[in-house]
Specification:
elongated, Rossmann fold, alpha/beta, about 325 residues, 13 helices
């Protein structure tokens, strides 16, 4: 019995030493990487509802189209699509609060994100724009249309169903208990500093249909997360439910006389079911792009632009 106590005591001492070493290393790493990145020069902002929103616009003629990006994305995510789309439309894209370079302001609920979108439509003085929501953005455009349908010209769900994550995602209490500082900050900064990891996540989302990311392109994706306040906003978002629309509320879109469209990549394993989404919101049968993944806006911009043009023609 005494021998067992001695063994357990030694194990406890070893674990404490490991914890002290890991914690000390984490604090040291976090201090060494405390400097935040500067935002790119020339960013444009507009007041939308209760926050400053970063945006870009393209094209001078045609009907308005507003692009709403997905989780961990930004205005730059649309860079392959907008030159094609701007041939026929006035195109607008903005950074959702919590991502990109817009002001970060809680709560990160679907209602708050929809208010930002409707505020953007107000600020740009747009008449019945077509709203295109990618992934998370599908829920944002859906909620905006449900709140003020008379102001919207049409809706496209792009690689997203607007619904809560399957199974509800990780329990918030568990996340908030286990993912604590200094370790979560260390883990995030290590991940953002790994080009290999970012490329792996990107290639998986793209079903290996996108051109490989260069180091500079990796920085475009990760730079927003190295802005002041970005880490705090991320943990606030992780610690609550994923912004989405409940199925019963989303089904109310079926009753709105708005042109609707659904487009998914056939290999998309993140956006949900294209067929069920089209049925739920009262859209025509979805457009399914063969051999494409969750980032059709990048891997198939011509096909996405063609689908948006078809939708806009129905407005």
């Amino acid at each position: 019995m005494k021998r067992l106590v001695r063994v357990l005591r030694r194990i406890f001492v070893v674990l404490v030493v490991i914890w002290l070493v890991v914690t000390g290393a984490s604090f040291t790493y976090n201090f060494a990487t405390r400097e935040r990145a500067l935002p790119p020069p020339g960013l444009r902002f507009v007041q939308t509802a209760d926050l400053q929103t970063r945006y870009e616009s393209w094209g001078t003629t045609g009907s308005p189209v507003v692009l709403v990006h997905g989780s961990a994305e930004s205005v730059e995510s649309w860079s392959a699509l907008v030159p094609i789309l701007a041939r026929n439309h006035r195109v607008y894209a903005y950074d959702i609060t919590g991502y990109g370079y817009s002001e970060r302001k809680a709560p990160y609920t679907i209602e708050h994100l929809a208010a930002q979108l409707l505020g953007f439509v107000d600020a740009m003085k747009l008449e019945k724009p077509v709203l295109v929501g990618h992934s998370l953005g599908a829920g944002v455009v859906a909620e905006a249309a449900l709140e003020q349908p008379a102001r919207i010209g049409g809706l496209m769900f792009l690689d997203g169903d607007g619904l809560p994550l399957p199974g509800g995602g990780p329990p918030r209490a568990l996340v908030n208990t286990l993912i604590v500082d200094p370790y979560r900050t260390t883990a995030l900064r290590l991940a953002l500093g790994s080009d290999r990891l970012i490329r792996s996540v990107y290639n998986n989302a793209c079903a290996n249909r996108c051109a490989p990311l260069t180091h500079d392109e990796v920085q475009v994706w990760t730079r927003p997360f190295r802005q002041p306040g970005a880490e705090k906003a991320l943990w606030q978002m992780v610690g609550r439910d994923f912004p989405s629309v409940q199925p019963d509320r989303l089904a109310l879109l079926k009753n709105l006389p708005l042109p609707k469209s659904v487009l998914f990549g056939a290999l998309d394993n993140q956006g949900g079911s294209a067929e069920q989404t089209a049925t739920r919101i009262g859209a025509p049968p979805p457009t399914i792009l063969p051999n494409q993944g969750h980032l059709t806006l990048i891997s198939a911009p011509n096909e996405v632009a063609a689908a948006i043009n078809q939708l806009a023609a129905r407005v």
